[in-house]
Task: structure prediction
Amino acid sequence: MWRGLYTAATGMMTEQNRTNVIANNLANANTTGYKRDRAVDEEFSPMLIRRINDTKQYKVTDFKQFSIDRRPPRVGTLGLGSYTAEIATDHAQGNMMTTGNPLDLAISGEGYFVINTPDGARYTRNGNFYLTRDGRLVTSNGQEVAARGGRNIRIPEGTREIVVGAQGQIWADRQQVGQLEFVQFNDRRAVLKQGDSLYYPQEGAQPQPATGEINQGLLERSNSNVIDEMVELINNFRIYEADSKAVTTQDSMLDKSVNNIGLVQ
Result:
């Protein structure tokens, strides 16, 4: 009974983690460039079950009470619960939304914008950028967008037309003023979520030139679908409820075994 109690409890913990992931996906359903997460569950190694006090052998290998396997016959396996092995990110392309703002940039295909932060280079798919008074291109949090070659991009004051090319080239009134740092990673697991639509690189991760394209006047929407997430949330709640009832049943059986069995009448 103790084993059953712990097995059901691990199921509840796993579903609670999944609920947190789904809730985060729902909260970011309208976040530009957001990529939904998925909780990947794995089962603990099952335990082999054998019949107790059954040493009879009926095998062709038996001869004068000799057998290769003298252990009791196997009955089956017993599951020992599950755990959350990984929170994986779904990097599927999000839908494009037209804004008409020349500073709104969306990535089609593979690639990240590079952002200069106090903690070093960070990466994002959120191309909702702004201009500062001195002509610097920054994120909504005021962090500067990195340019190729380490040179800062400055849009001259009074510029009437800003054009951004497919690989990040920037023209101000037909005069090229720089090029955005536009990279990708051969392994999508090379970068992990940090928050505020930013990704940080794992140790040893090396960025490569991006193969995707930058689209001006568009924003990439979140690839989190509210309806799908709600359906998954309801299903997750039902599983959690079943595990909860299993815990209650195990507790009730344990209570009876402790307080009633062997009671002197």
Observations:
- The chain has two helices and 19 strands.
- The mean pLDDT is 86.
